[in-house]
Each structure stands twice: as C-alpha cells, then as structure tokens.
Amino acid sequence: MGESLFKTKTVESKRLRILKISADGADKFEGMAFTYNVMKYTAGKALTTQEAIERYVWLSDEPYLGNYFVILKETEQTVGIAKIAEDGVNTIEIGYSLFEAFWGAGLGTELAQLLIDFSNNNLSPQVMTAYTDPRNVASQRVLEKVGFQKIAEKERRQGIMSYFYEMKVPK
Ligand SMILES: CC(C)(COP(=O)(O)OP(=O)(O)OC[C@H]1O[C@@H](n2cnc3c(N)ncnc32)[C@H](O)[C@@H]1OP(=O)(O)O)[C@@H](O)C(=O)NCCC(=O)NCCS
C-alpha cells in the first residue's frame, strides 16, 4: 500500500496531512499520547502502545478505507488518528482524534474538512456520517462547523448511546 495510490491533492490541508496506517506503521505508535482525555469518549480508557496498535492497525487492501496518521506538516509530528469507513450503501463515516497538546487551535475542524474532501474526491459517497458520545461537545461542535447535522440518538454498541450525524453530499 504505497502513497502513490493517493491521486488527489486533498491528502493535505493547510496544516495537516493524512497517511494511511499500514502493517509497517505499527512501530510508529511508540510514545504516542493516547491519554484518558483523548480516549474517554471512544475507548473509555487510556491506551497502551500495544492497545493502540491493536485498535488502529487495520490491515486491508482497500486503498482509501481505513485508519490514518494525522501529521502536522510544519513539524512532521503525528498529532492524531483519523478513520474513513463504510457505513452502509454509498455512505462513508469519518472519525478523528487529536492528542491533547494539539487541541484548541482549529485543527479538529481542519481535519474533519480534510476527511470530507478526501472522501468525496476518492469515494464519491452520497452521504457522510459521524458518531459522537453525547458528552463530547467539542466533537459535536467540529461536526456542526463542517456541515453535519444531528439526525438521531442511537445505541451504537451495547448500552452505549451515540449522537448520529449526517451530511448529504451535493451532486
Ligand atoms: C474533538 C477534537 C478533535 C476537537 O479538536 P480541536 O482541534 O480542539 O477543535 P477545534 O479547535 O477545531 O474547535 C472546534 C470547535 O469546538 C469548540 N470546542 C473545542 N473544545 C471544546 C470543548 N471542550 N467544549 C466546548 N467546545 C469546544 C471550539 O471552541 C470550536 O468552536 P468555535 O469555532 O465555535 O469556537 C479534540 O478535542 C479531540 O481529539 N478529542 C478527543 C478525541 C475525540 O473525542 N474525538 C472525537 C470522537 S467522535
């Protein structure tokens, strides 16, 4: 799975770049800060390096669907993880997490927009979706800023409620 598969310019935004995580990405997880605050609304606990590898190294031959490192172009630091997944017919789900040191600078919004642009250019979905924990006000705000609308509250995994967001992609 090489970077040559990425044909579009939208692998990058002004400050960020996304890079698909492949099998040989496992050794890059050492030292990444999957703290409780970063993970509380998704995994519910801080992750060790091994747990992060098991959660995010997703081996697939699909060129675009999967998990991505989020890289700050200026410093080449990995500042978070993003996800692009199928969520039904012609429907693409996005997800994102930034490490705490990088919160509050507009990067979450920039990343969500990058994931939308990248998905639209490469996968042409009719609908995009996202899910947040009801307590995750920051993520809800990010989704609203990039054009998602809250559609429903759903039980996503057993006993765990999520806010379900959707955006119809204009043709
Ligand atoms: C959600 C997350 C990506 C937001 O990243 P960020 O870079 O701090 O977000 P932005 O700077 O782009 O801010 C987006 C908006 O959210 C608001 N916001 C950010 N943190 C907030 C908070 N804790 N409470 C309320 N609003 C908040 C900002 O003020 C901004 O809104 P505004 O432009 O109207 O002022 C980041 O907090 C994160 O990675 N959290 C942990 C992982 C996670 O929860 N991921 C989402 C799972 S669904």
Q: How many domains make up the coordinates? A: 1
Predict the CATH topology: Aminopeptidase
Structural class: alpha+beta
CATH class: Alpha Beta
Q: Biggest β-sheet: count, sense, barrel? A: 7 strands, mixed
Termini Cα gap? 30 Å
Task: Describe the strand arrangement of the main beta sheet, using strand numbers.
Answer: 1-2-3-4-5-7-6
- Write the element-wise H/E pattern from the N-terminal end onward: EHHEEEHEHEE
Entry keywords:
single chain, 171 residues, alpha+beta, Aminopeptidase, globular
The gist of it:
With 171 residues, the protein is of the alpha+beta class. It has helices at 36-39, 49-56, 107-123, 137-145; strands at 16-20, 66-72, 77-86, 91-98, 127-132, 149-157, 160-168. The protein is globular, with a radius of gyration of 15 Å.
Helix-strand blueprint:
Layout: E1 16-20, H1 36-39, H2 49-56, E2 66-72, E3 77-86, E4 91-98, H3 107-123, E5 127-132, H4 137-145, E6 149-157, E7 160-168
